[in-house]
C-alpha cells in the first residue's frame, strides 16, 4: 500500500520505501506496480471499471430479477461482471486469494454510489449475505461482510451479522442453471435475534448477483420479521 509519510519518522520512511522497492505492491486488476497514494487498484483500472449506474434509476436490470418473487424497495449493482475482466480479478482477489482489504475498499466505492442516490436514503442497517461457519472457517472472513464494512464506512450505518445465518453449506452457484440455483439456496438461510431487525429497512449485500436466487432467499427470510423492508446491493452484476 502506498502511503503518505508526512507524519512518520524519517527512518521509518526510509525502511518502508526500501521494502517497497524490494517487494512493490501491485494492482490486483492488472498487476502493474502501484504508484504512491494508490491502494489495491491503480487509478487506470479504477477508471476502466464498467460502472452500471443502476442506483440512479428504477426499474433497472437488477430489480427486474425480483419482480413477482419478493418485495424489494430498491436494488443495484456497482459494476458489470464478465469473465476474464478486471472486476472478476478484483473479486477473485478478495474471495479466493486472502485479500479482505480489497473487499472493504470496493465496498467504499459502492458506498459512494449509494450516498449519491436518493433511492437508498432510508436504510437503517446493513446485513451481508452470510457464509456457512465451515466456509467462514476455511476462508477466514466473509467477503460480503467486508464489502458491507466498506459501505458502512461511507454511509455511517451499522452492519448486523447476527440476525441472518446460513444453516446449509451448499455448493457454489456458478455452474448451475436458474431453477437449480433457486433449489440450491431454498431453506438455506434462517433468521434469529429478530428484535435486532424488527421495523428496520435492511440493505442486503452480496459480491455478485447473477440469477438473484441467493439474495432473494435471504430477503424472504428477513421479510418474515415484523415491519422489515429490504433493499439490495452487490458489487457486480453478471447478466447471464
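^ C-alpha cells above, recovered residues below v
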Amino acid at each position: 500500500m502506498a502511503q503518505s509519510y508526512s507524519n512518520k519518522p524519517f527512518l521509518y520512511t526510509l525502511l518502508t520505501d526500501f521494502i517497497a522497492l524490494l517487494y512493490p505492491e501491485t494492482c490486483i486488476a492488472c498487476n502493474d506496480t502501484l504508484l504512491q497514494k494508490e491502494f489495491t487498484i491503480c487509478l487506470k483500472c479504477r477508471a476502466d471499471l464498467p460502472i452500471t449506474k443502476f442506483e440512479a434509476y428504477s426499474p433497472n436490470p437488477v430489480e427486474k430479477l425480483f419482480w413477482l418473487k419478493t418485495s424489494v424497495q430498491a436494488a443495484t449493482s456497482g459494476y458489470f461482471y464478465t469473465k476474464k475482466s478486471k472486476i472478476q480479478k478484483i473479486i477473485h482477489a478478495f474471495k479466493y486469494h486472502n485479500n479482505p482489504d480489497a473487499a472493504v475498499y470496493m465496498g467504499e466505492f459502492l458506498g459512494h454510489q449509494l450516498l449519491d442516490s436518493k433511492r437508498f436514503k432510508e436504510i437503517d442497517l446493513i446485513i451481508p449475505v452470510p457464509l456457512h461457519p465451515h466456509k467462514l472457517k476455511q476462508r477466514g472472513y466473509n467477503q460480503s461482510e467486508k464489502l458491507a464494512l466498506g459501505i458502512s464506512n461511507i454511509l455511517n450505518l451499522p452492519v448486523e451479522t447476527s440476525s441472518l445465518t446460513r444453516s446449509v453449506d451448499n455448493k457454489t452457484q456458478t455452474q448451475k442453471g436458474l431453477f437449480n440455483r433457486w433449489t440450491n439456496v431454498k431453506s438455506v438461510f434462517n433468521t434469529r435475534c429478530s428484535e435486532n431487525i424488527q421495523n428496520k429497512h435492511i440493505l442486503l449485500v452480496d459480491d455478485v448477483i447473477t440469477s438473484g436466487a441467493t439474495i432473494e432467499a435471504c430477503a424472504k427470510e428477513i421479510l418474515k420479521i415484523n415491519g422489515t423492508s429490504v433493499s439490495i446491493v452487490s458489487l457486480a452484476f453478471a447478466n447471464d
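The radius of gyration is 19 Å.
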